[in-house]
Amino acid sequence: MKLTKLKGLKGEITVPGDKSISHRGIMLGALSEGTTEITNFLQGADCLSTISCFQKMGVEIENKGDVVTIKGNGLHGLKAPSDTLDVGNSGTTTRLMSGILAAQSFVSTVDGDASIRKRPMKRIMTPLSMMGAKIESINDNFCAPLRITGAPLTGIHYDSPIASAQVKSAILLAGLYAEGKTSVTEPYVSRNHTELMFRYFGVDVETEGTTATVSPATKLTGGKVEVPGDISSATYFIVAGLIVPNSEILIKNVGINPTRDGIIKVCKEMGGDITLLNERTVSGEPIADILVRSSSLKGITIGGSIIPTLIDEIPAIAMLACFAEGTTVIKDAQELKVKESNRIDVVVNHLKKMNASIEATEDGMIIEGTGHLTGATIETNLDHRIAMSFAIAGLVAEGETEILNGEVVTISYPTFYEDIKRLAI
Length: 425
Ligand code: S3P
Hints:
By secondary structure, the protein is of the alpha/beta class. Helix content is 29%, strand content 26%.
């Protein structure tokens, strides 16, 4: 994919459905009584992996494009898969599904692509084992492939060393099946889509501060789930709208859950002209339309409790920082090293290639905004968010930017390049 400097971006777009919520809709729908109908489901490769894993466990799922219908098997109706459960590139499928598999009365094997085989799984193996499950890393490296022998589980309280919604959700999903209550305390609150959807499906879940507690469930009730637009996908057009001159973009129906909206707070603090319109709630999740206009930006420091609320947006924020006056410091973001790629190294090395003034730190990066980037050839490291962040950089850089393996955007935003073309003036 090749990109060059644009004169501006103007118009209205709707970004695809939220990835986190789409995954959870399939999983809870599969465990429910009755039929669940998910609209605006993300047809990205990661969420399709979740569908195929649950189909392999005997769940009837019909995917008609924008609408996905799941005939729930009930909490105890999953069947032993005859084959390995292939999660593709999806960390969310791996970790959340492991929480469910830990409680089944069968043995399963979970595996994925080369990137998944490097992602840390000890973070879920430890708490799920404490609950009574047997989870082995087949290559003995605390990574996939995992062999999960389900067992009767006991509720625990887990003090998670990291703020991770995938870890929290794996434990809470296992907690549906456990004897007694299961709770997780995190250092900071991570995205709470599991808790909100539990409530929507009739599960007894409480949250207080950074602790979420689930009671064992007798049944989940399926229904209609409308998936909001993914704020992580909207981010590329928020950032582009701010840094490409002469831009005005209205992004419709975007999820603005406070555990995900760090990008909006950061853009506003940097001086970005962003307005939320038409705020409302769908299927228990807050949403709004986001109006963004080209802006003069200033550098800021980003760290602490806001980090989990914008963790996937940091590569795009780095692009923003290159066009902000002064210094932007991103700290407390060491989790970036264990995403689809090492996003600290990859962002810093590639932005250096584009002549940015940027240095990596142990837990983030420091960027001096120069207001200037030079086009370069970008290796995506098969990381969708790297591809999209650098594609946006390509819209403001001098010369041509080439994104190698640019098709990796299909993981979370299949129509990404078409949407850029549609808005370009
Ligand atoms: C996700 C949680 C986050 C995020 C990922 C999706 C989820 O991961 O980076 O893209 O759906 O729960 P961590 O839990 O590893 O922080």
